[in-house]
Amino acid sequence: MDISDSHRPEQEELFYSLAPKMFGDAVLVSHAIVRQWDSDNPMTLSAAGLGRLRKRLPDTLLVSDDMQMQGLQKAMGTREASLRSFRAGINMLCIGNNLFDQEREMAVSARRCPVGANDWKIDRPVTKRRRC
Question: Is 37 within a domain?
Fold first, then answer.
C-alpha cells in the first residue's frame, strides 16, 4: 500500500515523540510505501526508510510487520523478504507461519544468521544489530 499522499510531517513528529514512551520501546514497521523516503521499496525492506527511523529512534527495536502478508508474498517469498529486511536494518521479524510450504526454507534462513537467540537480551542496545 502506498501511503505517500497521506504522509504528513506533523504525524511523523507525533510518532517520534510517542514511540520511545511505549512499553518496550519497540515499533512495528509496516510494508507501506512512502515515496518521499524510498520510491522502490516498502518500509520493511528499505534501508533509507529504516535508516530514517533509526536516526530519530536510535534505541528503539524495529519489528517488521508479518513477512508472510499477501502483498509482500506476491513480490517475493518469505526467505528473500526476510533477508532483505535484515540487510535494510530491521531488528526483529514477525513471521506468521501461515504458509506451511515455507517452514523449512525459513528454518534454513534462521540458521544462516550468525548470532543465536540467547545473544539477544532485552537490555542490550538495539544499535548492535546482527546481520544475515
Answer: yes
- What is the DSSP code string of 41-94? S-GGG-HHHHHHHHHH-TT-EEEEEETT-HHHHHHS-HHHHHHHHHHHT-SEEE
**H-run or E-run covering 18:** helix 9-18
| Structural domain boundaries enclosing 92 | 24-116
Q: Is the pTM above the cut of 0.85?
A: no
Q: The cell 519489528 sits on which residue?
A: 63
Q: How far apart are CA 120 and CA 124, in angstroms?
A: 7
Element (H, E) at 71: helix 70-75
Give domain status of residue 7, yes or no.
Answer: no
Residue at 109 is within a domain: yes
Contact 58, 127 (CB under 8 A): yes
**What is the number of domains present in the chain?**
1
Whether 73 is in a domain gets the answer: yes
Q: Each residue of 105-125: pLDDT tens digit?
A: 666 666 666 554 434 444 444
pLDDT tens digits, 86-104: 999 999 888 876 655 666 6
